[in-house]
């Protein structure tokens, strides 16, 4: 009984830590660091990606003690403290289930029902291990964008709206028009800027369906700000996964966006960012089918030139 209680206490402590971390993550540059971690752990749930970052901010690849040994030929170093995350723990239990017969009568029976609980498990980052070298996990890339055409084709294929490379009025680099259901991307930009802009606008199309509502003024401006930051955060995570660093551009855009948001709002945005980024990464880069891009360091970075639009049917970046 004591052992079960201890496990329960550990689980509660970890979930409490997770809730606190959602708020803390937006303070003094932590948001940028968390999105970088998210790009490395896009297959993990939102909660576990957060827990990994909170306990080991520089983690790049994690696995269990025995997996490091069996699958990778590496040993956890003596004295290393593991990273605690949550693992699903399915179980079955007998419950009363009410069933309705074709004649409309109901009857209650006792059935075995599948449920899912959670337990704490320990993993270790590659930096906490030694042994056989691993394949390069994060590509620090220079030079041109390799497979640029294939990557842009993959983004176009997964986009809910058709994407056109064509000039349009204003200073924004891209525009998602919900009324016309199409995406426009300015021509004659660098390959890196074009890829980032496409991902940003596709994120709008996936996340922010046009809603006819009565919000106006301050409320509409706040809603628009949150949507723009969600889309730019997704673009940052996806680009970071492929070794394209857009931090100078992206984080000038998202600075201070969380002010005034409560915990539920912050958590909802982070979950939406994580889920959308994971979907895009897996669609753009299926296993063994697409090489990661290589970024050439531009001689001069294009400055943030967001157009100021107030139309509710257009989100631009």
Give me some keywords for this one.
alpha+beta; four-stranded mixed beta sheet; 3 domains; disordered C terminus; 9 helices; 317 residues; disordered N terminus
Structural class: alpha+beta
Cα gyration radius (Å): 23 Å
Task: Provide the helix percentage.
Answer: 40-55%
Q: What is the molecular shape?
A: globular
Domain module count: 3
C-alpha end-to-end distance? 56 Å
Largest sheet: 4 strands, mixed
* Whole-number mean pLDDT: 75
What can you tell me about this protein's structure?
With 317 residues, the protein is of the alpha+beta class. It folds into three domains: 95 residues, no CATH class; 29 residues, no CATH class; 169 residues, no CATH class. It has nine helices and nine strands. The chain has a four-stranded mixed β-sheet with strand order 6-8-7-9. A three-stranded antiparallel β-sheet has the order 1-4-3. A two-stranded antiparallel sheet has the order 2-5. A hairpin with a 5-residue loop joins strand 3 and strand 4. Helix 1 packs across helix 3.
Secondary structure layout plus pairing:
Layout (H helix, E strand, L loop, with lengths): L1 H23 L5 H11 L5 H10 L6 E2 L1 H8 L1 E3 L6 E18 L5 E20 L3 E3 L16 H11 L4 E3 L8 E4 L4 E4 L5 H17 L9 H25 L5 H8 L8 H22 L29 E3 L1
Parallel strand pairs: 6-8
Antiparallel strand pairs: 1-4, 2-5, 3-4, 7-8, 7-9
Helix pairs in contact: 1-3, 2-3, 2-7, 5-6, 6-7, 6-9, 7-8, 7-9
In short, what is this structure?
This protein is an alpha+beta fold. Helices cover 43% and strands 19% of the residues. The chain has helices at residues 2-24, 30-40, 46-55, 65-72, 148-158, 191-207, 217-241, 247-254, 263-284; strands at 62-63, 74-76, 83-100, 106-125, 129-131, 163-165, 174-177, 182-185, 314-316.
């Amino acid at each position: 009984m004591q052992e079960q209680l201890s496990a329960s206490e550990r689980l509660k402590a970890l979930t409490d830590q997770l809730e606190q971390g959602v708020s803390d993550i937006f303070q003094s540059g932590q948001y940028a660091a968390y999105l970088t971690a998210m790009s490395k752990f896009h297959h993990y749930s939102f909660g576990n990606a957060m827990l990994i970052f909170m306990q080991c901010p520089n983690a790049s690849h994690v696995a269990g003690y025995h997996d490091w040994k069996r699958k990778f030929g590496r040993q956890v170093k003596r004295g290393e403290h593991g990273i605690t995350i949550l693992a699903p723990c399915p179980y079955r239990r007998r419950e009363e289930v009410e069933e309705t017969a074709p004649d409309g009568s109901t009857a209650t029976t006792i059935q075995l029902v599948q449920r899912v609980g959670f337990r704490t498990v320990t993993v270790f980052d590659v930096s906490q291990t030694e042994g056989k070298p691993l394949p390069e996990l994060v590509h620090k890339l220079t030079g041109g964008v390799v497979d640029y055409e294939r990557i842009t084709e993959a983004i176009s294929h997964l986009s809910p709206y058709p994407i056109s490379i064509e000039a349009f009025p204003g200073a924004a680099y891209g525009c998602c028009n919900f009324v016309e259901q199409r995406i426009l991307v300015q021509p004659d930009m660098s390959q890196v800027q074009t890829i980032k802009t496409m991902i940003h606008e596709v994120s709008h199309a996936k996340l922010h369906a046009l809603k006819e509502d009565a919000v106006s003024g301050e409320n509409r401006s706040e809603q628009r700000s949150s949507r723009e930051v969600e889309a730019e955060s997704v673009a940052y995570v996806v680009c970071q996964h492929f070794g394209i660093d857009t931090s100078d551009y992206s984080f000038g855009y998202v600075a201070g966006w969380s002010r005034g948001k409560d915990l539920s709002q912050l958590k909802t945005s982070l979950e939406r960012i994580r889920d959308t980024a994971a979907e895009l990464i897996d669609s753009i880069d299926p296993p063994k089918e697409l090489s990661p891009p290589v970024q050439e360091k531009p001689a001069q970075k294009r400055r943030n030139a967001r157009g100021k639009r107030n139309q509710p049917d257009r989100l631009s970046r």
